[in-house]
Specification:
Blueprint (H helix, E strand, L loop, with lengths): L2 H15 L6 H8 L3 H13 L5 E4 L4 E4 L13 H14 L8 H14 L8 H7 L12 H16 L1 E9 L4 E15 L2 E8 L4 E6 L3 E10 L8 H6 L10 E8 L1 H4 L12 E4 L5 E8 L2 H9 L4 E5 L1 H15 L1
Antiparallel strand pairs: 1-2, 3-4, 3-7, 4-5, 5-6, 8-10, 8-11, 9-10
Length: 321
């Protein structure tokens, strides 16, 4: 039996069990299918599942002749149930976005397939597997409305005008943007779009967009644009800057923590005889990788470029002050 058919049958079972006496016309409207499809579902429930379905002329609807009937339970392995729970946790990141109602509806349908009780031992799961998923910064009501307008503008390929709060300058800026893509990363939502002021692509934090207005002009997505390529050379999510070769030597004290980690697609690694690691990266812009290097303390030494060496020295002096 196909999944969508079983979901429909589970809902039919729920309607009959509530003694609402649903008929084919009513259920066809609910599921947006033909009455013939509903009749096939009813017959399948009778023939394949042994459902004691009867039709009441007085109530003009179906009912169960035997109240003890129940649909066969859908059995999930512990791993499958864990996947469902993890999926629910990830989907919670979409709270207050236009996707939330559809996702919630999908999970409600999924719940119809689950038995009334499922045996699972959370302790055993915690002992064998865990997930570190960064908590999303929840969109407030104003940002949620901005998000909704952004999704519509992306769909309609409509340019927008935004009032954007620039944290570094503690100031508001008005920008005209061609919105291309919404990306969730590092616990927040970001807009990727073509900025008419900078004549280039930029990222904008959705929470920092304090006003948005749809413009009448339409735009075409540039053929050479790719979200994957856009972030391919970034250390994290901030794009921009020339491709720079960065070489870092990690002292043996911390090298063992990185020997089996891939920090960037361009990463090249050399294990030195003294136990240290030499890592080479090619990144677009150095601001983010500089912060990572600083986080490793004196155990990380910059080999090149000289410009990054100077920036880190200057930053260290400011930190010491």
């Amino acid at each position: 039996m196909e999944r969508h058919t079983y979901i429909r049958i589970a809902k039919i079972d729920e309607l009959i069990r509530k003694k609402s006496y649903p008929n084919c016309r009513k259920m066809a409207e609910i599921f947006e299918v033909s009455q013939r499809t509903i009749l096939r579902d009813i017959e399948a429930m009778k023939d394949s599942l042994g459902a004691p379905i009867l039709f009441s002329k007085e109530k003009n609807g179906y009912y169960y002749g035997n109240s003890g009937f129940s649909l066969p339970e859908l059995k999930l392995s512990e791993g499958e149930l864990l996947a469902v729970l993890l999926g629910a946790d990830i989907i919670s990141r979409y709270k207050n976005t236009p996707f939330e109602p559809a996702i919630r509806s999908a999970f409600e349908k999924l719940q119809l397939l689950l038995p009334d009780s499922v045996s699972i031992n959370p302790k055993n799961i915690d002992e064998s597997i865990s997930f570190d998923i960064r908590q999303t910064r929840e969109l407030d009501k104003k940002s949620a409305k901005v998000f909704e307008k952004l999704t519509k503008a992306i769909k309609d390929k409509s340019s927008i005008e935004i009032n954007y709060y620039v944290i570094g300058r503690d100031a508001m800026q008005k920008r005209v943007i061609d919105p291309y893509h919404l990306r969730h990363t590092q616990g927040s939502w970001y807009l990727i779009g073509y900025c008419h002021l900078r004549k280039d692509f930029r990222t904008f934090s959705v929470n920092q967009i304090k006003g948005i207005k749809a413009l009448p002009q339409k735009f075409e997505i540039q053929k050479d644009f790719s979200v994957k390529d856009f972030f391919a050379d970034s250390w994290g999510f901030q794009e921009g800057g020339a491709i720079t070769k960065v070489v870092v030597r990690l002292d043996k004290t911390i090298a063992r923590w990185f020997v089996d980690r891939r920090l960037h697609p361009s990463q090249q690694m050399v294990e030195n005889k003294d136990g240290s690691l030499t890592l080479t990266f090619k990144v677009a812009g150095t601001n983010e990788i500089m912060r990572w290097i600083l986080s490793q303390g004196h155990w990380a030494k910059i080999i090149e470029p000289e410009t990054l060496k100077k920036e880190i020295r200057d930053e260290a002096r400011e930190m010491a002050r």
